[in-house]
Amino acid sequence: MKAALVALLLLATPEGSEAERRSMALLAAGDKAFDNLEYEEAAKRYLEAYRLLEAAGERNRAPFLYNAGLAYEQLGSCEKAVVLFDRYLETEQMSVTREIAGTIDRARRCAPTIRIQTNPPGASVLIDGVSVGASPLSVPVRAGEHVLRFEMDGYRSLETALNVEEGRPRAVVESLAGRAKLGRIDLVVRDISEVSIDDEVIGRGPFERQVKIAHGKHDVRLNRLGCELRELELNVPPGGSVEAAFSPDCVAVPAQEPPHGPYVRGRGGSNAPAWISGGIGVAALAVSGVFVGLSIDGRNAVDAELAKPDDVRVGAEVRRLNDDVGRNNVVAVSAGVAGLAALSLAVVLWVTSPEPLEATVAGPTARF
Predict the structure, then answer these.
(1) Is the pTM of this model over 0.85?
(2) Sheet strands (E) in 193-284
(3) Cβ within 8 Å of residue 196, ≥6 positions away
(4) Which residues in 224-331 belong to E strands, given as ranges?
(5) Predicted confidence band of residue 119 (pLDDT cuts 50, 70, 90)
């Protein structure tokens, strides 16, 4: 079981360093605990020896990781064993025997690797209440049912079930984007202006109010008649708050100068004829549509009369219905032609409407 420690026997030499001699003492204590089935104590001693040699800069320390992994495997903590075995393989790939490879493979089947990603990344990941790091990460997880939890500042925590099958690595991808906490704008308005956030009016000051709102950038505006518009752009953090305070300051809007100058623009005409012609055209087309419908009804009536047996059919009624259909067709066509003509005239009148007139007034030049 502890074949990897054969190489450590080379450390037990009179010329060994103090760290090496202390590590051999810890090795003996770990072996004794392992033989007495005190696997947690054995793992503790092996890892203590590893850290001692690591601090001293000794290279022959990796087998202690393997033995600690064996102890955790005996405890049933195969996920901890996989972590230690992987660290062991980082430095001992060339000396892995078939027995060691089989042991590591058995642990990996017991605790497959789970790849965990979140959107956005950086969420704290807890498995069964124990933190395993921040996403994205890969972590061995013992086969069975677990509770996976994600926590991130500015977002509501997400908890989900995780079912791990023996020998089957898998990936888990979760989105926290839709769980962002609402932010808040603390408004303090001492003015009588109308207050709006993102063009939505929320009231008229003065008032103090807390407005819950999605995180991100927002425009807060104060608008009072005769005063210049006041505006703030705020960046609200998820789950956080920002303050927007407005004092009763009013910077008067400069009065516009009266029109003066050699050229003052005025309207020289209007589009009333175009509107009238367009209205007539629409009405005429509507009349045409009505008579088209009447014509269709009349034709259906003629067909129904002709479908009757000869001894029942009334010839005079057929002729009357045909005459009605003919009149309806004439009215429909006439109204349609008149409507299209009126609409065409409206377009021409609109396009060729008069340009603004220019009048000469004494004084300096100004345009409006």
Answers:
(1) no
(2) 194-197, 200-204, 207-213, 216-223, 230-236, 241-246, 264-266
(3) 202, 220, 221, 223
(4) 230-236, 241-246, 264-266
(5) very high
